[in-house]
Amino acid sequence: MKKIPIETDLGVLRGRDCIYFSKAEQDEMDNLTFTGDINGALVDKHRNEKDWFPYQLTFRRVLACFSCELDTYENLAGSGCLDGSSFALIEDSAWLRSLPMRSDFDKSQYKHFRLLTYDVVYDIIAVSHQMDIRV
Questions:
Q1: How far apart are CA 51 and CA 53, in angstroms?
Q2: Which of 10, 58, 84, 111 fits 43 for a cystine, CB–CB 3.0-4.6 Å?
Q3: Strands, E, within 1-134: which ranges?
């Protein structure tokens, strides 16, 4: 397993206090959308220009989603698993490899994303993501 930070319009998002969300919604097309704010003090670009940046993050064609309270997740996965980026792609994911997908799904199209919010960690298996940030 290798964590690759995802570059956003604000650069790499870092730290437990970086991503806050106010709601999450899943639609009938299996898209999962998070809406909230990003802490401007914990980003690589545009730092301190604004205190908070509103965002909308949509995962397309979600196959699986796991959420867990942040401190419990760290105890479960081992110390240091949440270091680095608050939004990352997990390469060579054991979870994705072991997922028993339907025979008409192409496993090579799917990716494992990890989203670390203030209180909750989300592991999401989806085809793609789109993040819109009001900078």
A1: 7
A2: 10
A3: 2-5, 19-26, 32-39, 52-60, 64-69, 87-91, 111-116, 120-126, 128-133
H-state helical runs in the chain: 70-77, 94-98
The pLDDT score that the predictor gives to residue 88 is 95
What predicted TM-score, i.e. pTM, was given to this entire model?
0.92
CB-CB neighbours of 26 under 10 Å: 12
8 Å CB contact between 18 and 6: no
Q: Name the β-bridge partners of 89.
A: 4, 113
How many angstroms separate the CA atoms of 52 and 55, rounded? Answer: 10
Of the candidates 19, 4, 5, 33, the residue with the CA atom closest to the CA atom of residue 129: 33
